[in-house]
Design a protein that fits this description.
Largest sheet: 9 strands, mixed
Helix content: 25-40%
CATH superfamily of the largest domain: Spore Coat Polysaccharide Biosynthesis Protein SpsA, Chain A
Distance between the termini: 28 Å
Structural class: alpha/beta
Number of helices: 11
Order of helices and strands: EHEHEHEEHEHEEEEHHEHHHH
CATH class of the largest domain: Alpha Beta
CATH architecture of the largest domain: Alpha-Beta Complex
């Protein structure tokens, strides 16, 4: 199938931002987006915050005077549902995602994504992630990092990221949820993002595209569009403040619901190994990334407590899955409907 965009002008790009209780960070992000040099784009913000001050509201309303910015206010939707909601409201030929706590580096960020779509076989793009501007690739094993960049592990099909490499790579297997873009036509053909997972919501969409794409079609990793990650901003999923039990439960849910949907036999056959990997990832997260367990005196006893609680967490997930199946709600929506109606829109226009 040819995905060439039939237009003599540059394709319209919809930049989608899902925002939840990070209004100060959003206030820093939006001016960066509106300062992009690309000639045809809109910014669609799915604003779901439950706490907003008058000052924050006034700042957003002031930015929304720009006709390229559309603010869609909604009740909290969750990550994948908000993504589908934003896509349904978008008008662009290319859909470009960025998290509300990240910042694009430079005013050519959108243009760098769009350049990849000169090839009609390019379905989607992941750009580079950095923690600070100008940093080199942090990986000691550079060849291994490049091989694993935006792929799924061969045995368990767990997602690998390694998006801080500084080399172009084609093909990759996944488009990241931030600094990731995809053709609208690809979403229309393969469906949106499964909504019944709290984490790794990109995986379902990417697995379906990989299974259904034509020979020669590909996802690309391009280090030219760079985003600086904001890893310590409260709000959103608050991944760095969740409990060890909550972190483990989220990944267990992902394995049951998403990987169990697309790789059911693999998950059943290798289930004990999945549990070991999830436990290992949880401990590694506590040691390296969590603010709640930043000292050994906290993460070590939490690891033992988690080990003892694992049977209970597994039984709870099995029970939850059985209950969802009995009510017919076990399969997640893929954004086939336009989603909930926004409470208000501060601006419109492309």
């Amino acid at each position: 199938m040819s995905y060439s965009i039939e237009t003599t002008s540059p394709p319209l790009v919809s930049v989608i931002v899902r925002s939840y209780n990070r209004l100060d960070a959003l206030g820093q992000l939006l001016p960066r987006l509106l300062a992009q040099r690309y000639p045809r784009f809109e910014v669609v913000v799915v604003e779901q915050s439950t706490r907003i001050t008058a000052e924050q509201r006034a700042r957003l309303d002031g930015l929304a005077v720009d006709p390229r910015l559309r603010l869609l206010y909604s009740e909290p939707l969750g990550g994948p549902r908000a993504r589908n909601f934003g896509v349904a409201a978008a008008r662009g030929d290319i859909i470009l995602f960025i998290d509300d706590d990240d910042l694009p580096l430079g005013d050519g960020w959108i243009a760098a994504h769009v350049a990849n779509y000169d090839d009609p076989l390019c379905l989607g793009v992941t750009g580079r992630h950095v923690l600070r501007a100008g940093e080199p690739s942090p990986y000691r094993l550079r060849d291994l990092a490049r091989r694993r960049c935006m792929t799924f592990s061969p045995l368990l099909k767990m997602p690998w990221t390694y998006a801080r490499i500084d080399q172009r790579k084609i093909p990759i297997e996944a488009v990241h949820g931030t600094n990731g873009s995809v053709r609208r036509q690809v979403i229309e053909q393969h469906g949106g993002w499964d909504e019944d997972t709290r984490i790794e919501d990109e995986t379902s969409f990417c697995l379906r595209v990989l299974a259904g794409k034509q020979p020669g079609e590909y996802f690309a990793f391009d280090p030219a569009p760079v985003v600086q990650r904001g890893l310590d901003v409260p709000g959103g999923l608050d991944k760095r403040y969740v409990s060890a039990f909550g972190f483990f439960a989220r990944f267990l849910e992902f394995v049951h619901v998403i990987l169990g949907r697309y790789h059911r036999r693999r998950v059943i056959a290798l289930y004990p190994l999945y549990l070991c990997v999830i436990f290992g990832w949880t401990v590694a997260w506590m040691v390296a990334d969590s603010h709640r367990y930043s000292r050994q005196a906290r993460w070590l006893p939490a690891s033992f407590a988690l080990l003892l609680a694992m049977p209970v967490l597994v039984m709870a997930q099995l029970w939850s899955g059985a209950s969802a199946g009995s009510t017919g709600s076990g399969r997640g929506s893929r954004g086939s409907s336009p989603g909930p109606r926004p409470r208000s829109s501060a601006a419109s226009g492309a």
